[in-house]
Every structure is written in C-alpha cells, then in structure tokens.
C-alpha cells in the first residue's frame, strides 16, 4: 500500500508541473493578448486625444469670420471710355507752396456720347475746375493715402457741372507733389 500512496503523490506532482496551461489557453497566448489589448487601448487613447484637440481647434477657428469683401473688388471694373484732360499744374494752399503735377483721365459709359460731347465743349472749364480744386488743398491732403477721397470729391464737383450725364471714375496717370 505504501507504493500506491507514493504513486499517487508522483502523479499529483506531474499534474502540478503541467500547470502552464490555465483554463483553455496557454500562458504565452495570454501574454500576447495582454500586449495586444494594451496596444489597442493606446491607439484608442491617442485617437481620442486627437479628435478632442481637433474639435477644440475647429471651435476657435470658426469664431473668426473672414472680412467681408467690398462689391467693388468682387467684380471686374466696368469698361469705360476715357477722356484725357491732360496735365494739370497747381500750387498747393500751404505757406511754403508746393507744386502739383497731375495727368487726369475721366471715365464715362461707353455708349454715352452726350457726356463725351459735353466734356469736349467744357474742357477748358473742367481743366480750370480741377486746377482750382487742387490749389485749395494742402500738401498733406494730397498724399497718396488720400487719393480715393480726392477722387470722390473731384468727381462730385465735375458731375455737378455736367448736365448731359456723369463721369463714373477718375484716374490719375501721374500725380506728383513737388517742393519748389
């Protein structure tokens, strides 16, 4: 009987040495599954952080609206006929007078022959009106930063004189203020 007990203990020791298999899966497979699970968890974490970061950045960029573009710059400028007034020389209204040299063109609608006829008939008067306009300004008022304001004021003065139509635009081919 003693042998039977010894055999039983030997069998039980064999069973314990074969304990590498836990349940249905071996230990190495469990270790691989652990690493795969950690990798998937890391990928999900990085993916979540990226999505949250992009949402935060998109919210802040949506609050910035682009500036509105003026209708003048959205479309191509209209095609106009140009009437050359010629070179205008005028003295500024400063104490230390400067001289303005400008070549002025007046733009009007292509089909408007009445304006062209009137500009031809009133050219000396319009040249004088432009010269007096520039003579009433100081050198500071005739700076390039004020050019659009000057054009608007001058166009209003010329259009007040015209009876058969209106000019649409003024262009300065040359515009120089020179100290003498």
TrEMBL record:
<keyword id="KW-0145">Chemotaxis</keyword>
<keyword id="KW-0969">Cilium</keyword>
<dbReference type="InterPro" id="IPR005503">
    <property type="entry name" value="FliL"/>
</dbReference>
<keyword id="KW-0812">Transmembrane</keyword>
<keyword id="KW-1133">Transmembrane helix</keyword>
<dbReference type="Pfam" id="PF03748">
    <property type="entry name" value="FliL"/>
</dbReference>
<protein>
    <recommendedName>
        <fullName>Flagellar protein FliL</fullName>
    </recommendedName>
</protein>
<feature type="transmembrane region" description="Helical">
    <location>
        <begin position="28"/>
        <end position="54"/>
    </location>
</feature>
<comment type="function">
    <text>Controls the rotational direction of flagella during chemotaxis.</text>
</comment>
<keyword id="KW-0472">Membrane</keyword>
<keyword id="KW-0282">Flagellum</keyword>
<keyword id="KW-0966">Cell projection</keyword>
<comment type="similarity">
    <text>Belongs to the FliL family.</text>
</comment>
<keyword id="KW-0283">Flagellar rotation</keyword>
<keyword id="KW-1003">Cell membrane</keyword>
